[in-house]
# Entry
Amino acid sequence: MSEKLRFEEMPRVAPVATRRKVLEAAAELLDGPGYPCATIEAIAAKAGVAKTTIYRWWPSKAAVLLDLFDTISDKTILDPESGTVVTDLKIYLNALRELMTGTVAGKAVAGMTAEAHANPQMKEEIWAHFSQFRKAAVREIIDRALTTGEIRNDIERGQIDDLVTGIFWYRLLTIHKPMSKEECDAHVDAVLSGLAP
# Structure
């Protein structure tokens, strides 16, 4: 493979100032008039950039909103490394709860999930992104617990991920009844009681 081809296949990143303006504009629209108004046209107008500028760096509205989600989640979802898997998972799940119910990231996800039912391209884009997000966000905690023997190692890794977070996403995005802090903590206790070695 040529150097030129490798370079062209590298992800393109928007200039810092442009990215900041676009993501701030998207956040303001989500927090104000709401998801239906967070169109590429409205984001461009609020950011003071041309639509073509947005499309140069983000191929779709979903790409802009997923970038915003990642920017916020990177500051919210951190590996606690508390020393025990039960504490780590409670901190993680409650940080996820705060991200999804207390920031515009949650509004972005709720809006995209609803729109994706009628938009196959968006559905594929956000499904791929969130599948990776779910795995990456909890991977370090689970791997550490498997290494230390805090949880059973005879269960498929993907099943453990689903046990930890599946009910959270179901409550949030399907029945629209987010879990409380107490419910998150109780859920972790229940899951780990079944995963104990």
About this structure: The two ends are 48 Å apart (CA to CA). DSSP finds ten helices and no strands in the chain.
